[in-house]
Specification:
mainly alpha
Length: 362
């Protein structure tokens, strides 16, 4: 008859095992901490563009190495280079922006229109503030507005980090993405095996559904922002608008943040009508209207193509992610909320529809 193991030994063994595993996890996180942002960014990019890699590989006689090289170059040209140039442009023009704010304060501000005071509730207060601001001298306006401009620019520079570190993160993201492209099937099978270990067959379906959510969010936000910034930038360059490259970079970030390009294009159209006449103002207006409205049609289609996600969730994700994680949070925030929403929805309903989970070959 076998002797029973004392309970105290079992507790000691279990406690030591848990402590040892915890130490390993903490040490691994500590070692990988410098690479986590690039790793998360690369994972989002690879998941979003994996179907494109498979189609490209089929066109190149199933040569994975050549397909990975093409995707890596395309990644640099389409996503990472524009993001890098956007940050460098805004940081490089920080002093010019502050100087522009100072020059704006020299303009004579007219008295508020009569209709402003007739607006219910807030009309009187807005008109009073307008009059108070118009009564200030140029020096007083400059002293009032310049600190706000400096605070915004300093906040952006802090979030974006140093120029060298930002470029390093982008290059590291590209390298990790190339490795993931080359070993995508192995990584995917490892993730699915881990999900099956946690929750059985349903865990695998949930992992596939989470991947679709990541893909739809990334494509919906990034592609829409690129299209809007490119279209609006073309209009600015054609009309010869001052600092067109800087304004295009700002539009790109505003589109990523789900604010839209209207904050740039509407004042630009007004300025052209005032300074250059109706011809150039109308030309920019022709570009501005589709630029401002195109996201209402394209983004929902791209997002809902992969997963049924509410746009309010996407908006909260990009704003919250930007505040919590900086520039990279524009991508991480909505992806985290999308995955959380998807998993919570599956947990509440207890079922996964076949059209949502999709096949395991995706």
């Amino acid at each position: 008859m076998k002797e029973k193991t004392p309970v105290s030994l079992d507790v000691t063994h279990t406690t030591l095992a848990v402590i040892f595993i915890g130490i390993l996890i903490a040490s691994s996180f500590w070692i990988l901490h410098p690479f986590l942002i690039a790793l998360v960014w690369a994972s989002v990019i690879v998941i979003a563009t994996w179907p494109i890699l498979l189609k490209l590989q089929a066109l190149l006689a199933r040569r994975r190495g050549l397909a990975v090289a093409v995707m890596t170059i395309a990644l640099l040209l389409i996503l990472l280079v524009p993001l890098t140039l956007t940050i460098l442009t805004i940081i490089g023009n920080a002093e010019n922006i502050v100087s522009g704010v100072k020059s704006i304060t020299s303009f004579t501000l007219p008295m508020p229109p009569q209709w402003l005071e007739r607006i219910p509730l807030e009309g009187g207060r807005l008109a009073a503030q307008w009059k108070a601001f118009a009564a200030l001298s140029p020096e007083q306006r400059s002293a009032l507005l310049t600190p706000y401009a400096k605070d915004v620019l300093e906040w952006f520079v802090t979030q974006a980090g140093s120029i060298g570190m930002t470029i390093l993160y982008f290059l590291l993201t590209t390298i990790i993405s190339a490795i993931m492209y080359a070993n995508g099937e192995i990584i995917r099978e490892g993730v699915l095996s881990f999900a099956r270990r946690l929750a059985g067959p349903q865990g695998e379906s949930v992992a596939i559904l989470a991947g679709k959510a990541i893909r739809s969010v990334a494509l919906g936000i990034v592609l829409t922002a690129i299209m809007q910034a490119a279209l609006g930038g073309i209009g600015l360059f054609i009309t010869g608008f001052p600092a067109a490259s800087l304004l295009t970079a700002i539009m790109f970030l505003l589109c990523l943040a789900q604010i839209g390009p209207a904050l740039v294009l509407i004042p630009a159209v007004i300025w052209l009508y005032w300074k250059e006449g109706a011809l150039w103002g109308t030309i920019l207006l022709i570009f501005a209207v589709p630029t401002i409205t195109v996201d209402n049609f394209i983004r929902p289609v791209l997002i809902k193509k992969g997963a049924d996600l509410p746009l309010l969730l996407i908006f909260a994700g990009v704003i919250g992610g930007l505040i919590a994680f900086g520039v990279i949070g524009l991508f991480i925030g909505p992806v985290i909320l999308a995955v959380t929403y998807t998993l919570l929805k599956v947990w509440v309903t207890g079922t996964i529809r076949g059209d949502e989970a999709g096949s395991s070959s995706e």
